[in-house]
């Protein structure tokens, strides 16, 4: 079951890029980003109410932990711009490359509370293959 | 096109940072509150940007309602569904195969959607996706061999 749900989650990721990109083409990037977040907020509120979950708020939460949603706006905006120019699969491949590069930097320098793990030279081959694949997607 | 490609890579980097911050928040307040606060702060920020910067593009006429046009208003709901599913499946999947499965699913459905939207199949895109998947699989495999964690791309929230 988790395997199937993982496939569904991947599908939802790709589909939502298309949906948000379509909305941006009609309404403009900034307006559509507002609607995406408003619809998301209503959805999570309904989900929490249906499951009768309780909210708790720890006042000692550091201020920077509130910035995930603020930076998330950049993600929605950037996805919309990329979708309009490159479709779905190429932006997904580029984002996965960015995530993996960030992961390598996090491991190398022990950032964001991660344990330090030195960069492996074999990873250069991984990145070359990913970058080569993206070039093929864009040109062939 | 190059700057758009660079933007997409930077979105990937930003995603890792967002996940870390959301996870950090959820550690103290729970996942539901974390997701809720994520959307509240996102809504306030996007509203502020719209009001301060303004939208230069006009609103396009919607025309007759089709399935695709109706679906485009539900992107936020699909995003929440995706987030909840990732939170659920990530700890339940084997690290290597689970990570590769999530990569494959995202890229595979990206290809299918490109095919549906453009109406034409591109063998070059399929070959490129296979190369990207091989590269990502190699990265995760090397990481696992040295006893490291899976890349943050597969981590929850």
A few lines on this structure:
Chain A contains five helices and no strands. Chain A is mostly helical. Chain B has two domains: 55 residues; 94 residues, no CATH class.
Can you put this structure into words, describing what you see?
The complex is a heterodimer of chains A (140) and B (157). With 140 residues, chain A is mainly alpha-helical. Chain A folds into 2 domains: 1-87, no CATH class; 88-140. In chain A, 76% of the residues lie in helices and 0% in strands. Chain A contains 5 helices and no strands. Chain A has helices at 2-27, 29-50, 67-86, 89-109, 122-139. The radius of gyration of chain A is 18 Å and the shape is globular. The two termini of chain A are 37 Å apart. The model of chain A has no long low-confidence stretch (mean pLDDT 91). With 157 residues, chain B is mainly alpha-helical. Chain B has 2 domains: 1-55; 64-157, no CATH class. The radius of gyration of chain B is 19 Å and the shape is globular. Chain B contains 6 helices and no strands. The interface between A and B is large, with 113 and 112 residues.
SSE diagram, text form:
The complex is a heterodimer of chains A (140) and B (157).
Chain A: H1 2-27, H2 29-50, H3 67-86, H4 89-109, H5 122-139
Helix pairs in contact in A: 1-2, 1-3, 2-3, 4-5
Chain B: H1 2-29, H2 31-53, H3 67-71, H4 75-89, H5 95-118, H6 123-145
Number of strands of chain B: 0
Count of helix runs of chain B: 6
Please, what is the average pLDDT of chain B?
87
Secondary-structure element sequence of chain B? HHHHHH
Assign a percent range to the helix content of chain B.
over 70%
Taken together, the total number of domains of chain A comes to 2
Summarize the main sheet of chain A. Answer: none
Give the number of DSSP strands of chain A.
Answer: 0
What is the helix content of chain A?
A: over 70%
Overall body shape of chain B: globular
What is the oligomeric state here?
heterodimer
CA-based gyration radius of chain A:
18 Å
- Report the average pLDDT across residues of chain A: 91
* Rounded radius of gyration of chain B (Å): 19 Å
Taken in chain order, the helices and strands of chain A follow as HHHHH
Q: Any low-confidence stretches of chain B, pLDDT <50, length ≥5? A: 152-157
In DSSP terms, counting alpha (H) and pi (I) runs of 4 or more, how many helices of chain A? 5
Largest interface: A-B, 113 and 112 residues
Biggest pleated-sheet summary of chain B: none
